[in-house]
Amino acid sequence: MESGQAVDAIRRNAEARPMGPVAVARFEPTENSMRIGVLTGGGDVPGLNPCIKAVVDRAVEEGHEVVGIRRGWWGLLHLNPDDPDTHDACFIPLDKGKVRTIDRTGGTFLHTSRTNPQKVRPKDAPVFLMDPNAPAPDPNSILDFTPHVLKNLEWLGIDRLIPIGGDDTLSFGERLHRENFPVVAIPKTMDNDVYGTDYCIGFGTAVTRSVQFIHQLRTSTGSHERIAVIELFGRNSGETSLISSYLASVDRALISEVPFDVEKLADLVMRDKKDNPSNYAMVTISEGAHFQGGQVVEYGEADAYGHKKLGGIGELTGEALKKLTGEHIIYQQVSYLMRSGAPDALDLMVGVNYANLAVSLMTSGVSGRMVALRDGSYTHIAMSTVTSGLKRVDVGELYDVNEYRPKVRHVLGKPMFLY
């Protein structure tokens, strides 16, 4: 809960702050020119840099300016217009020269964070926004700095904003839309779980990387006649694990949506090992998977969106399998390797096309939308859709809950990734 008096003082401090000089030299505007802001939030994925470059190239060609916000929403929270020392850390003017080669690499050259300006703990709040004469807020209180973010957007002269992120990042973009700031969002997440779109930037490369590493691990697993447990990202949605295991033909795939019985799993993988002429078995597991009657393995402090770090369920599963079967286990977290390196052709294409669609919408005066792929076609939907539902694996259609493996029998009429 908010600590009333302290929060009111902080809000007054943010809203009363003088505007100061314009931070980015304004170009000579034409009647239809605008300044577009772009940022990336949440986890990095391949395809972000090509998307940023396409936004800049298209906007500049049409006579607009682009300002890159550094470190996602962190940049708009920590920017103090009256303190030039904060400027380089929080934003950068972008032109074709600055983005000329960024599409050749993965990640985001603007950097990223999991900051949520409408839910900030006092310990994480910028010092310059805290009124020294006000009572100290409750350490457990939640501070809303949306007015400060809006003030900084105004000071930067940004007319439109393109946030690129997952459902967490885009939820604050939707908040800005409700505050009447023009926003067009681009969905990004390797879990492919943003509600309302069939595809998010980063998913294709994550699957490609996962399939490659699964096959490469067959070398050691088969040579030593062991059982491999391969842990993949996937907090709430097991689609990455499901599709990767489907394409790599693993023996068993454990997904976030279905709790599993480890004793039953042990019997299944021993059968798989026996039936394999090379005498080994492969299991993939989403980081959000959990034992029947157990909990998701989490650790650390929750971030601004309420998420703790995940990881380790694969190791626990491997230890249990070793105890139950007596077999040696190879445990491998693929984790960040799934989102490392340059994008594959699919993420490159979708990232560029999403960028072009977003700029097209903005130059047409459309806002409050998220670009999307639906039924194989590029389109756009209301930003409110992002927070209106959850996107999860269709277990009944795509997964065998008794055998712990993909079960795909009907693909007619389904989207490319079966979702």
Offer a concise description of the structure.
The chain is an alpha/beta fold and 419 residues long.
Fraction in beta strands = 15-25%
For the biggest sheet, the summary is: 7 strands, mixed
Number of domains: 2
CATH class of the largest domain: Alpha Beta
Task: Jot down its keywords.
disordered N terminus, 2 domains, alpha/beta, Rossmann fold
Question: Can you characterise this structure?
Answer:
The longest helix is centred in the middle third of the chain and has 21 residues, at 203-223. With 419 residues, the chain is of the alpha/beta class. Helix 2 (48-61) runs parallel beside helix 12 (345-363), helix 8 (203-223) crosses helix 9 (239-248) and helix 10 (262-275) packs across helix 11 (313-325). Residues 1-7 and 9-23 have low confidence and may be disordered. It has a 7-stranded mixed sheet, with helices on both faces. It is built from 13 helices and 15 strands. Helix content is 34%, strand content 16%.
List the SSEs and their pairings.
Layout: H1 4-16, E1 35-40, H2 48-61, E2 65-69, H3 73-78, H4 87-90, E3 91-94, H5 96-99, H6 146-155, E4 160-165, H7 167-178, E5 184-187, H8 203-223, E6 227-232, H9 239-248, E7 252-254, H10 262-275, E8 281-286, E9 298-299, E10 309-310, H11 313-325, E11 329-333, H12 345-363, E12 369-374, E13 377-382, H13 395-398, E14 399-400, E15 405-406
Parallel strand pairs: 1-2, 1-4, 4-5, 5-12, 6-8, 6-11, 7-8
Antiparallel strand pairs: 2-3, 9-10, 12-13, 14-15
Helix pairs in contact: 2-12, 8-9, 10-11
